[in-house]
Amino acid sequence: MPPIATARRHFQEDITRAKGLLNHAQSITDGKLAADVLRASWMMSVGACDAFFCDVYGDLIARVLRARDIEPAVALPNRLQNLKIPVVAVIRQSQGGWRWRMAARELIEEESVLSLEKIRSLFNQFCQDCNKLINKDSIEKWLIHKDSSERLFGIKSDEYQQLSDSRKADAKQEAIKILEERFKYIFQRRHDCIHNCDRPKVSPQKITAQMVEAAIIDIEFLVQRCSEMLRDEFIKYLSRIGFSGITINRVCM
């Protein structure tokens, strides 16, 4: 199975469930009940995002460890050398990729990936310096994407492309800031729903179907763009640290 494919499939299943709750909420005549189903949809969609990035991290780490099993002479980068692999994974009798996949899952089991900074800290180790996730060098690809939105970046794609080079530099910095604020809000709202029934102060916060739909669209955008970048970058990463094409094919097919 190619890198990230299983995580993407699970994400699609989970985000479809979130959309199902959104659709159901719009058929409910009791306003309070409909609002709570909308909150469930919001929580499910953010949970799908969290689970996706956790699954991808476990997947990529497992593939590196499997490749190292095949080519033990390859020196791993310091960050991977210092991973605290559970002892049970080392002594486990089962052989091959399954052992390392379970070890990687145990590594990420207690993690939450609900911040863009956490996403960068986990995954930029696999990316070339010129193509790190969500920085000034890579954000332009997202800004000019056909699914880009003013809500995510503070500027429309066609408006950005008409700017001068100097103004584009400023727009990219601002776009990153707006993107971070947007996802900080999306992730925090899920926290509010789970931990205080969406009542951080006196009354429950306003929620509408349009707000939930926008959150789902934005989560899908983030997952899809990160998937594309990581899928391409991970193959290059394995080659860059010294694994042969044969080994890369074995662990990535």
Search tags:
253 residues
Structure description:
There is one protein chain. This protein has 253 residues and is mostly helical. The protein has one domain (5-252). Helices cover 70% and strands 0% of the residues. It has 12 helices and no strands. It has helices at 5-25, 31-70, 78-81, 87-91, 97-108, 116-123, 139-143, 150-153, 157-161, 165-196, 209-240, 245-252.
Provide a brief overview of the structure.
With 253 residues, the chain is an all-alpha fold. The chain has twelve helices and no strands.
Write the topology of this structure.
Layout: H1 5-25, H2 31-70, H3 78-81, H4 87-91, H5 97-108, H6 116-123, H7 139-143, H8 150-153, H9 157-161, H10 165-196, H11 209-240, H12 245-252
Helix pairs in contact: 1-2, 1-11, 2-5, 2-10, 2-11, 2-12
Number of strand elements: 0
What Rg, in angstroms, do the CA atoms define? 20 Å
Query: How much helix is in the residues?
Result: 55-70%
Mean pLDDT: 89
The portion of residues forming beta strands comes to under 5%
Report how far apart the termini are. 5 Å
Number of domains: 1
Largest sheet: none
Which blocks of ≥5 consecutive residues have pLDDT under 50?
none
> How do the helices and strands follow one another from N- to C-terminus?
HHHHHHHHHHHH
Q: Output the number of helix runs.
A: 12
Strand-pairing-aware structural class:
mainly alpha
Q: What is the 3D shape? A: globular
